[in-house]
Amino acid sequence: MVDYHAANSASSSGQTSYMEPESDWDRDLLLDPAWEKQQRKTFTAWCNSHLRKAGTQIENIEEDFRDGLKLMLLLEVISGERLPKPERGKMRVHKINNVNKALDFIASKGVKLVSIGAEEIVDGNAKMTLGMIWTIILRFAIQDISVEETSAKEGLLLWCQRKTAPYKNVNVQNFHISWKDGLAFNALIHRHRPELIDYDKLRKDDPVTNLNNAFEVAEKYLDIPKMLDAEDIVGTLRPDEKAIMTYVSCFYHAFSGAQKAETAANRICKVLAVNQENEHLMEDYEKLASDVSMQACVRVCERESMRVREHFLCESVYNLSRSLYLYFISNADSCSRLLCSIPGNLRCGNRAGELAGQWAGVYDQLLINFIINNLTTISHSATELYTGKEAMLTQKDYETASLSEIKALLKKHEAFESDLAAHQDRVEQIAAIAQELNELDYYDSPSVNARCQKICEQWDVLGSLTQSRRESLERTEKQLESIDELYLEYAKRAAPFNNWMEGAMEDLQDMFIVHNIEEIQGLITAHEQFKATLPEANKEREAIQAIQAEVQKIAQYNGIKLAGTNPYTTITPSSIDSKWDKVQKLVPQRDQALQEELGRQQSNDHLRRQFANQANIVGPWIQNKMEEIGRISIEMNGTLEDQLTHLRQYEQSIIDYKPNIDQLEGNHQLIQEALIFDNKYTAYTMEHLRVGWEQLLTTIARTINEIENQILTRDAKGISQEQLHEYRTSFNHFDKVRNSPTVQQYLYWEFGRNVVCKTDSGTEVLSSFLLSSIYSLYMFIFIYAV
């Protein structure tokens, strides 16, 4: 975040710093994330409006100022001063030196830069670059603005308020929301150049059209470049204040320059008119000089007194008249020269000396006329000042005003106080006039004294009300600033807490799918950790609500009617409580769901163990039986009839084992119904066991069938027991070499992979099924040969 501040070097003027407080910058960042985009466009356009005078411009504000060259050029253009010669090298040290020269120049103008260094500008730090340009704009475009004893931002705001006051639907109170509908921009242009805009055709509900109209007219006819986008302003809840101030300052400089030229022209015209009027007056007085009668003198003096009565204090009129009288008495010949000193550059002839005797008779009456005329004028002015002001000073509009509105009311009140101070001399003149009339024994002095007393009393009341209103406004401003700080603190803490609650609600309502106890226990552990954070979270909620309660307490204690909701956030205390209550309800629901899932997983684990315990018995049993069948079929243990009997007994034992297979099938059915797809407790699956069981039954049946065939063949061919013994000996010899690599390779290529299998020790041997088949084949060939 950018942190910068500049102080006004003109401390002798008694004005406060023209730079805004740092907290204003922080609040913009919190409430309006689009500030950087608006400032980048506005500041770039403002810089180009000056750089084009030097025949150049910038495209990217953070990139084009990195080497410091265009930054130094910009400062030279806007200040009219020469900066030290820049370094033309392209190394980083050269760029840093150039930027430092520019920053030193800014500092030399009384601007204090904090946290803005040359390295950040050279590195292209966007926020730091924008902060530096804003500092330049404040110093060279806004600081020198002065309107009615207010300067910088306040002066610019007061100027806008004065210029747009007559326009409907325009109420400029700040440099963000007040400009959003575009009417204020159009009003400024229409006030100075009414021929450029038809203001009556503008509609408040069409801000985009209003803004584009003002921007286009300003660019085309006033040479003010387009620095803002209508869509950005309308689409933003609170337009960027610095961007608006920068653009409005261009209007001030454009119109103030034209106004100064017009004022100079008017002064020249006035001087010419005064000279022409003086020439006419001299001609008139040359004519009047021929008539030195008392009536002519009185008429001239009365006529001229009417011309000067609004421009002179009663005391100066009296002194001027008294000096004129004494001069007539002492030196009648010089009367014409003294009369020429009366304002108006009037000249009389030298024949006025003979009027000295007649002047004394009319002097007092003439002086009274002067005083009464001045009394009437000053009294009327004081009465006009008082009329309507008492109601204005006693209204309590500040009770429902916002902080920005209070500041505007204070500015207006300060302007009123300045106007009131300017009339102080006139009220004092009224007392002096009453005193003069009393000394001249004016016949209506009591009426004048009563009139003077009433005006003085009204003036005292006005002063008391003015002081009381100032105190109320300042007290309310201080209270609203406290409330504003609390609002900001509330927004800073409520935003992350609200995000935490929304994330918590989402997690608590999130569906979960687990496959074993370990996974559900992990979720339960995480949930317990979350519940452990709830007390701290509740403390944070209570602290946030306490901030809002403090706001209500301050407002209630001081009788402040809060204008609306928190300007920095849309998160209300009620919404926080509502979400917190929902979190509190969701926590036990999540507890219940997790415990239910834990029970289900425990049940599933029991099913896995139950199936595995049986499968780990049945699997090896089937494998052992398969191997035993193979051995029985090739070993020479008794006659074929003995082997047949033994095999049938073996078959019966296998059939008797069937209930174990059925029980295993039942457990497997329970696992399927529970949607269990894995079992870490056994390597056997029901499919494998079914295949093994079927293969076992098939093998024993086929072996029995082969023995029976051997018996039938033996009996049919008449083979003796010795011949069978020879056959078995030959086959046993073959069985000894069945594991030979040559035999295995041959059988592999002849019959495929299924002829070789692995024992429990990992040794590859010929399968029992293959051995049995080979044995039967070998016996058939042997018997056939015999």
TrEMBL record:
CDD domains: CH_ACTN_rpt1 (cd21214), CH_ACTN_rpt2 (cd21216), SPEC (cd00176)
Keywords from the UniProt entry: Actin-binding, Coiled coil, Repeat
Coiled-coil portions: 406-440
GO MF term set: actin binding
Domain Calponin-homology (CH): 37-141, 150-256
SMART domains linked to this entry: CH, SPEC
InterPro entries from the UniProt entry: Actinin_actin-bd_CS (IPR001589), CH_dom (IPR001715), CH_dom_sf (IPR036872), Spectrin/alpha-actinin (IPR018159), Spectrin_repeat (IPR002017)
Polar residues bias locations: 8-18
Region (Disordered): 1-21
Protein name: Actinin alpha 4
